[in-house]
Structure formats: C-alpha cells, structure tokens
Amino acid sequence: MRLQLLREYIRELLQEGVYDPNILKAVFMAGGPGSGKTFTAKLTFGADPKSVMATMTASGLKIISSDIGFEHLLRKAGVDPSTLRDMPEEEWLKHTEGPESERGLSKLTRNEQKRLAVSGRVGVIMDGTGDKYEKMAKKKAELEAAGYDTHMLFINTSLDIAQQRNKDRPRSLKPEKVEEIWHAVQDNMGAFQRLFGRNDFAIIDNTVYGPLASEVSEAVDEWLAQPVKNPIGRRWVETELAYKEHEFGKEDIEKLAPGAAQRTLGHGGRAPGRPGAGVRGASSTHEPISNAEIERLRRAQKAEIERQKIKGT
Question: What's the whole-model pTM score?
C-alpha cells in the first residue's frame, strides 16, 4: 500500500511544474484531535471532505498527512483504529511509538510525499496538530528555505466538542490524550500568531461543522492568488520560466499557460541576468533577486532551523 501510494503520488507530481496553480504556497493546519482540521482543509481548498483517501485539492495544493497511511497499516495489522482509545498503554505504544510502529511507518511515507512535493515546488497543506511549537517552527523554516510562502489556519474548538468528536470518529484517542494535546495546542496559539504574523494567520471557529465564514474564505483565496513573495521562490520561478522560454519559446509558453509569470511573479517577470526575459518580454515590477540576497536569506533560514533544533533538545 505504501509503495502504491508513493507511485500514484509520483505520477501526480510529474504533471506539476511552474505552470501549475499555487506552487510555492504552504498552508499549515493546527488544531487538536477532533478539531476538524482535515475536514476544514478539504472544504477550504477543494477536496471531498467525506473521502478519507482524498489528498488532491481543486486549488492544486496537496495534503501532506500521515493519518491515511496510519489507519491503513493498523487495519492491515488487524487492529481496528477505533479501539486505540481503549488499548492498554503498552499495546498503544507498540502501534504509535518507534520507527517500526504503524505510526512510525506512516510518517516515513508522509515524509517522502513531502520531499517529492517540495522538490517540484508543489503547493502543500501540512496537516498536523501543532502541539509541539518547535517542530512546527522548524517545518516552516525548512519550507521557506525552499522558497515557499507560508500561512497557518488554526482550527479552534472547545475541549468538550473535541472529546465528543474524538469519541465519534473511526480513529479515536484516549480522552486524557485528547485533553493533553488540546491544552498544548491552545498554549501555542499566541506563539503561532507571532511566528506567522497577523496577515498569515487565521483562527477558524469549528465548533459547528459548516461552510467557512466568508471573510476567512476570501482571505485564503486572496493569499493564494498573490504572486510568490519569498525571494528564493521568486528566483526559482524566474529561472524555470527563462529555461522554458529558451527551450520552447514565448509563444508556446503563453499557449500552455497564459499569464504564468503574472500569476506567480506579478506583472511582467524576467529571469536574473536576462533583461526582458519574461513570458511577455516585459520588465518585472520587482527587480531580479541578487545571488547575495538569496545567500543571505538561506543563511538566516538555516540559522533559524538550527536555533529551533537547539531549543527542542
């Protein structure tokens, strides 16, 4: 199953590229068990909320999650996911801790999915809980070092609602574990807002399942529609467009993907060192990014990753 999932994922990624919608956009989901993170992600970005297997969204973003593989591996091992909440501690740890556990193996698959997506600069939805601030901050820094713009949707519910939903869903956790994670996520809310910034952080009240508030939906759509801001990402897009223009010509690019440069870079767009080398041959409203600026950003982001590693030890 794991190999099959990866093969399907690779086939999907082969179709992706600089022309595809919402490349270099990463949305982080945060919220405890039973908050409805995955449901909200699918509803927001255009996937079937009722389909457990759906990881593709209409927006072009890929859902990166270990939950699908985890539930499959549990069933393959003869374990009903709904029985997790009632397992003795020793048995629960057997299935959830360590690299050879079902949870550990599902995380390996998730990590490979992420690696493949990021190598193609495909837009991603990082479907996590957010109970460990350092891990989230490290993932954010890693994606930004690869050129991504980042945003967070914090899915909020009361503890009572989270406990009830956890009890009702196919894969449930022990009540005390739900409470532990819920409090940890709540404690991180302010830190996440500071980490992502006011404009790239949104809280969604998910006490009642239903359509998103219009202001949240509009804000997400607006963020997705914005040209890539991360200078490292912009350089990648500029270089890719310049290569494709050189190989196939401006006319072929415009036929395949009208307005690709405008969508990802803003009006115009040109590759570094190639004046006028945009899809329409127009100068960019942004100056080409220098190698020195790119290197400075990489050093700063690498330092942030190392700082988070030290903080987490």
Answer: 0.76
Q: What are phi and psi of 187, to 5 degrees?
A: -65, -25
* pLDDT tens, N- to C-terminus, the chain (313 residues): 555 555 554 444 444 477 777 899 999 999 998 898 888 888 888 887 777 677 778 888 999 988 878 888 888 889 888 888 888 888 888 998 988 898 889 888 888 889 988 988 999 999 989 999 999 999 999 999 999 999 999 999 999 999 999 888 877 888 999 999 999 999 999 999 999 998 899 999 988 877 777 777 888 888 988 889 999 999 888 888 888 777 777 776 676 666 677 777 774 333 333 232 222 222 233 344 456 655 666 666 666 556 656 655 5
What values do phi and psi take at 243, rounded to 5?
-65, -45
Contact 142/53 with Cβ under 8 angstroms?
no
Q: How far is the C-alpha of 38 from the C-alpha of 35, rounded, in Å?
A: 9
Rg of the Cα trace of the chain? 21
Instruction: Give the angle subtended at the CA of 119 by the CAs of 69 and 23, to the nearest 5°.
Output: 95
CATH topology of domain 2-225: Rossmann fold (3.40.50)
Handedness of CA 33, 125, 114, 11 (dihedral sign): positive
CA-wise closest residue to 182 among 159, 206, 198: 159
- Asked if 277 and 245 count as a contact pair (C-beta separation under 8 A), the reply is yes
- 201-205 β-sheet, strand order: 62-64, 124-127, 25-30, 149-156, 201-205
Element (H, E) at 181: helix 175-196
Q: Which phi and psi angles does 218 have, rounded to 5°?
A: -65, -40
3-state secondary structure of 69: helix
Q: Are 71 and 102 in contact (CB under 8 A)?
A: no
The whole-angstrom distance between residue 49's C-alpha and the CA centroid of its chain comes to 17
Going from N- to C-terminal start, the domains of the chain cover 2-225, 231-291
Task: Kindly state the tokens that stand for 144.
Answer: 């930004």
